[in-house]
What does this fold into?
Amino acid sequence: MPKCTIDGKEVDFKAGENLVTVAKRAGIEIPVFCYHPGLSVVAQCRMCYVEVEKMPKLQTACSTQAAEGMVVKTQSEAVKKGRAGTMEFLLLNHPLDCPICDKAGECDLQDNSFGHGSEFMRHSEERRTYVDVDMGPVIQKNMNRCIHCTRCIRFGEEVAGIHEMVAIKRGNNIDITTIDGKQLKTEYAGNYSDICPTGSLTLKDFRFRKRAWMLKKTPTVCEGCSKGCNMEVQHEGNVVYRCVPRENLEINKYWMCDEGRFNYQYAQDPSRIVDPMRKAGESWLVTRWDELLTALRNDSGGEDVLFLVGTDLTLEEMKSVQEAARIWAPRAAIRSFGTPGVESSAQDGPKDGILKMKSKTSNLKGAETLGIPPLLGAAKSTVVVVFRGGRAELPRIEAKKAYGVGVFLEKERNSVHAILPGLSFLEKDGTILNHQGTSQTLKRALLPRGKSKALGEILMLVLNQKSSEVNP
Amino acid sequence: MKEKLLSEKFYQAMKSKEPRYPNRKALILPALHQAQAEYGWLPKEILAEVAEYIGVHEAQIREVASFYTMYNLKPVGKMHLKICTNVACCLRGADELMEYAEKKLGVKCGETTPDGMFTLSEEECLGACTTAPVMMANDDYVENLDIQSLNHFLEKVKHEH
It folds into this structure.
């Protein structure tokens, strides 16, 4: 492998890699704004200056490819001066309002200014200001904070496949906006906020709800479709505030769709059922766990019983349902359900050519691996038990008695007669198989809500003869 | 297919220019010039048509057209005055000239007089720093300006039209 030297360290590199990537591997951080590993290189922010021996001037590390024997200095006096100069220019028009900016704490501009800029400011001219356009329901724009890195423009063009952001005019008057001030159309708009190195594009859903440094971060996987995008759940005090994509070059690279990003909301919807409940006439009553557990066991032991397993459950949960059914409902048929029209992975496929898949549940492949055949048409049986993670679309249920085990919202509860509340993907650990068959792990971020219980626990309690002693 | 706004002449002129440029994108500037020569200014529909002709997204044409000051994105008057306000001209009093012209014509920089006669705008370096301050009046340079000669020039134009 060819080698180059960065700050005295010898580093291996692959041909074509730029100095930012190579230095990062050696543990040397080069500050960047416009450079993003998932986007094309434009070298226009001039922040990543490095000194390369035998080159007369400072070079931008993002656009300089490593070469055999290259000697690079990232901490020389010239580099420091160059970066400080760039920082000074970038801050000419940037408001000094970090304390009230939502990006503070996770802002590249703030970090790099702290790391490479000067404490003092030499100019006293008036800063330019803009009137902002409405960018639609996802993104809030604040052009005053923009440093024109054009990441958003390149993201739209190169990743989301839609050329909706433009840089019009130039120099001091430049305006990064949408064509004719239209609202954003892409279903990947949340990424604009992730890649924005300043507080210029922020998420409407998240802004001013929590400071970035107060959030706890749990790496998990999105359950929005069979793609299995890696994401990070950011939460505090058992409340999720946002989800952001996590890098996985084989699956989602650096991105995720808005549907997946905001999917967490159903799990903390106030109308989610978190108490054991049963239907009495037209109304719903909160009841005791032991009552429902006993009823479930008594009802599902007989003939003509159908167990419906949502393809939004984890492999572990599906397997436990299979195993438990073998003991207390040996004659029950087990079928999977998830997305109408996408019953098998053969019917699954890319939906928009970017990330989204047709299957709206995460573990269709897992259900197939465990040999659970799909439910075709309506669920007709004397007793139907629905095990559901929260995302699988409920089929039409025609049964004398129907139980729901898992996550249900109030609007969904009338498909069944009793609900044993379970855990959503935010509250459990588990394994899911994405459409490629890659096994990925869900990580528990929150504590269970209300009186909901893990599916494994519910199944164990049903099995347990003494279920009447269960604490309500 | 939408009806074309640009004439056959535009497409013929562009056809003859095509071999002189290495790729389609390099044709953006000449195409915009040609379209502006034909139409006087560049409305959105024309930009969209140029984008279609070049084969790039409309957004890219918008970016280019708004970057260069010589493309008019608004209709202009019969006499388009473009005063250079870059360093050399600025040091030789371009700001005062601009202020004077604004007062004299009763419009702000970037606006057109109500009679449609004059459009006043700011221009980036015209490359005539030796004779600063400079102004372009339509396609002609007016050099070594001062308030008196600017006044004289404006009076002359008013008189002629």
About this structure: Chain A touches chain B at residues 157, 163-170, 179-180 (CB under 8 Å). The domain at 277-469 of chain A is CATH 3.40.50 (Rossmann fold).
